Automatic annotation (TrEMBL):
It comes from the Bacteria. Residues 5-235 form the ABC transporter domain. It comes from Nonomuraea longispora. Keywords: ATP-binding, Nucleotide-binding. InterPro entries: AAA+_ATPase, ABC_transporter-like_ATP-bd, ABC_transporter-like_CS, P-loop_NTPase. GO terms for molecular function: ATP binding; ATP hydrolysis activity. This is ABC transporter ATP-binding protein.
Length: 313
């Protein structure tokens, strides 16, 4: 498949600090790629090099084959950047903001009016377009921020923490907009600290730490690496301790009682696609099974497992 974005051997130093260390990843055309990393991982520096506001010490960024360093105008024209902070003018209306950013990319006349109308529709703000931006809610401002990154019809859209500080309804509206863009063929590079968002919108994920990609794959593939077997919740009615002993006697199976729910057994196994039938057989005659539910590892668990739990800046 055609690569829309390629980062190869990126290195960036700030004095003695090596912020990005030979980083390499690529995003195929029409794909949503999540770039995740803790504070101090080099993620923000990487984003700045991808969009061309920061020059790498070495390495290459290509957008649809155009090298950012050698052909910056061609490459930047293909990229839409939506930063963490809302970068708009509060005294202008939503429509006026979008016209301004469209003109920066050379749009004029009917084409500009058409694109402004289209992106307002994408973010669901056509009915509020002629109100001053300063009267918009935080979520609405972030949606216009996305529209500003889209107005020049970029091939690659970089969304850096697009839902920070917004209410659940606005977050859902933003995610729905991203899903529609990806379905329509737009390539998206997405960063967020909300792992459920990444699971929802991203086809693949790269986890960056200390300036390098340390894991990469589809969300379900990364989650499978944390628990190659499986996990389940089993709620019982009867002697919970005896039930735990019976399940723990199974080879390759571990069990604990949930702290917050004393009738709930948390069962894990390291081999086999599904050991739940064995668990239920072991409980036969020991305790009545009230409910069972398969539990899969979360992307957040994978992230913490790979990067550690201690806070770093």
């Amino acid at each position: 498949m055609t690569a829309a974005l390629e980062c190869e051997g990126l290195v960036k130093r700030y004095g003695s600090l090596l912020a990005v260390d030979g980083l390499k990843f690529s995003v195929t055309e029409g794909e949503a790629y999540g770039l995740l990393g803790p504070n101090g991982s080099g993620k923000s520096t990487t984003i700045e090099m991808v969009v061309g506001v920061l020059i790498p010490d070495s390495g290459t960024v290509r957008v649809h084959g155009h090298e950012m360093a050698r052909h910056p105008l061609r490459a930047k024209r293909l990229v839409g950047y939506v930063p963490q902070e809302v970068a708009l003018y509060p005294d202008l209306t939503g429509r006026e903001n979008l016209r301004y950013f469209g003109r920066l990319f050379g749009l004029r006349g009917q084409r500009l009016r058409r694109r402004v109308a289209e992106v307002l529709d994408v973010v669901g703000l056509a009915d509020r377009a002629d109100e001053r931006l300063g009267t918009y809610s935080g979520g609405m401002q972030r949606r216009v921020n996305i529209a500003a990154g889209l107005v020049h019809e970029p091939k690659v859209l970089v969304l850096d923490e697009p839902t920070v500080g917004v209410d659940p309804q606005s977050r859902n509206a933003i995610l729905e907009s991203v899903e529609r863009l990806v379905a329509g063929g737009t390539t998206v590079l997405y960063t967020s600290h909300y792992m459920e968002e990444v699971e929802r919108v991203c086809d693949r994920v790269g986890i960056i730490d200390r300036g390098r990609i340390i894991a990469e794959g589809r969300p379900e593939e990364l989650m499978a690496t944390l628990s190659p077997g499986g996990r389940a919740e089993v709620e019982v009615d009867g002697d919970v301790q005896a039930a735990g002993v019976a399940v723990a006697a199974l080879p390759g199976v571990a069990v604990t009682v949930a702290d917050h729910r004393p009738r709930l057994l948390l069962v894990t196994w390291t081999e086999g696609a599904d050991r739940l039938p064995d668990v239920l057989q072991a409980l036969n005659g020991v305790a009545a099974v009230v409910r069972t539910a398969a539990v899969r590892p979360s992307l957040e668990e994978v992230f913490l497992h790979l990067t550690g739990t201690s806070l770093r800046d």
